[in-house]
Amino acid sequence: MKIFDLHADIGCDVLNKHQKGEKDVLKRYHIEKCLKGEVEAICMASFFHDQSWEEMQEMILTLEKELNEQEVFHRVLTKEDLFVNKPLALMSVEGMCGITQDPEECVQWMYDHGIRLASLCWNEENALASGVGGNPDHGLSELGKRVIAKMDELHMIIDISHANPKTAADILNTAKGLVIATHSNAWNLCPHRRNLMDEQIKTIASRKGLIGMNACAYFVNENLSLADCDHLAMHAKYIKELVGIDSLACGFDFMDFFEDHQESDVLHLESADKAQNFVASLRKQGFHEEEIKKICHQNVIDRFAEYLF
Ligand SMILES: [Zn+2]
User: Fold this and answer.
1) Ligand 1 centre from 70 Cα, in Å?
2) Rounded to an integer, what distance in angstroms lies between the CA atom of residue 198 and that of residue 10?
3) pLDDT of residue 190 exceeding 90
4) For residue range 154-172, what is the model confidence (pLDDT) as tens digits?
5) Which of 49, 56, 82, 232 is the residue whose CA sits 20 to 30 A from 281?
6) What structural domains and CATH numbers belong to the chain?
7) Residue 261: pLDDT above 80?
8) 304 Cα to the center of ligand 1, angstroms
9) What is the pTM of this model?
């Protein structure tokens, strides 16, 4: 079953390894694993939490260059690209901490270098917005509102996965375009600050947004011995029962390419090459094949095709 993974920190990995003198990181570390797990479409995130604008640019440019130098993945820049019969790579940004002035120019630069999906913050509070680790009374700033307006103008998809509840609500109230949570599960099954409360799930679904199921153990079960692939599928079942099937997606956030990742691994779903185990777990939870297709890729393709230029 083809999988569209809404979140993997591959941009970060590419820059880290380039800085250690490595090259062809996509070819040597990622492409084979993705294809083995039928992860045939993937949002490759450049991840930032305290970087400057120049450092943000460096990571984005490094990933862009690697994508241009390989032929397996086709880059998604327009809605037509979603229907090209090749594996797909959509460049995304997780956190825009480097934007402290001229937000319209910065967002335009990101767009011009292929970014089609982005969040304003990671867990931190920055000049644009407050993440789950920031002041809970702080949400979207005036500068952040200008970023949202520019993203709306360019039809860039807005990710609220790391936003605190105030920021998420502010964005859902402010943005006119597509708002999704690329890698978050259900708070009611695992009360972690990165997971979504029922009201948030309902709001995202009512706006035709998407929620990507996250294969990070801490977000699957409080008891880490139960943080396995089947328990992640239970989050999907819970969300389906709450709001229906049309908002569900995958956003696994695999970290096998980073050091010290083992602690956060979800049993049987540790890396992209294991992604088909999630399909098996969805079947065990009673999902029909048509529903599994929607979760694995069709919901994302449908929504992105409606929204991207
Ligand atoms: Zn994340």
Assistant:
1) 26
2) 30
3) yes
4) 999 999 999 999 999 999 9
5) 82
6) 3-307 (3.20.20.140)
7) no
8) 20
9) 0.98
